[in-house]
Design brief:
Number of helices: 9
CATH class of the largest domain: Mainly Alpha
Number of strands: 3
Shape: globular
Strand order of the largest sheet: 1-2-3
Order of helices and strands: HHHHHHHHEEEH
Strand content: 5-15%
């Protein structure tokens, strides 16, 4: 647990809170021992923390510009990506173990850890945690983020092409630290490949690559 605490950047006074935050309901249905209640709390804490951080990071922006950033930063894919960056998947207790790389589980555990930190160290400490580990994602969202899968589908429809088709073409690494490669195709228009720590992240990267290629070919920048 000390190794994980070093990665998180917070050392718990009550170590059982961290252990609970990492325990899936497949291990125990006892609500005092699995992460479900902590995830409920952490989800709300993350939302308030992110709203607070965006409010003070982008001081001149109206609500209409803050909202898309907020949605992008608290969505499942982003939260799961932060969990993978912290290596939480290696510490999750679940049966089967493969659940530890499930995007929903990764998102839930990240939120549960935030909830546990809030209970153990207070709300300000939880905000600091979110700031520290979501900072680069906030910076990456200096402009409102595009959801590339949606954007690709809309663009394909606009140029009267077929619906994008996604296919996992390769998976590398261990079950605890996987890397997915996904190919996306739009019939008659082209293909692209993306990679990511989860299937959905790889799909987003593939969609981004193909969208940029199609927009360039069609004179849209």
């Amino acid at each position: 647990m000390e190794k994980l605490e070093n990665k998180i950047g917070y050392h718990f006074k009550d170590k059982k809170l961290l252990e609970q935050a990492l325990t899936h309901s497949s291990i125990t249905t006892d609500v005092q021992k699995n992460y479900e209640r902590l995830e409920f709390l952490g989800d709300r804490v993350l939302g308030v923390s992110m709203a607070h951080l965006l409010y003070f990071t982008f001081k001149k922006e109206p609500e209409g510009f803050l909202s898309p950033r907020f949605v992008s930063l608290v969505r499942k894919e982003t939260v799961a990506e932060v969990a993978l960056e912290l290596g939480l998947n290696a510490f999750i207790k679940a049966s089967p173990k493969e659940l530890s790389t499930n995007e929903n589980v990764l998102c839930d555990v990240m939120e549960a850890v935030i909830g546990a930190v809030c209970l153990d160290g207070g709300f300000e400490t939880a905000i600091d945690l979110v700031d520290r580990h979501f900072k680069k994602h906030i910076e990456k969202n200096a402009a409102p983020a595009r959801v590339y899968k949606t954007a690709l589908q809309e663009f394909a429809h606009h140029i009267k092409a077929g619906t994008p088709v996604y296919e996992v073409i390769k998976k590398e690494g261990s079950e605890h630290d996987p890397l997915f490669y996904v190919k996306v195709s739009v019939e008659g228009k082209g293909t692209a490949v993306g990679e990511g720590k989860s299937k959905k992240l790889a799909e987003q990267e593939a969609a981004k690559a193909l969208l940029e290629m199609l927009e360039g070919a069609n004179g849209k920048h």
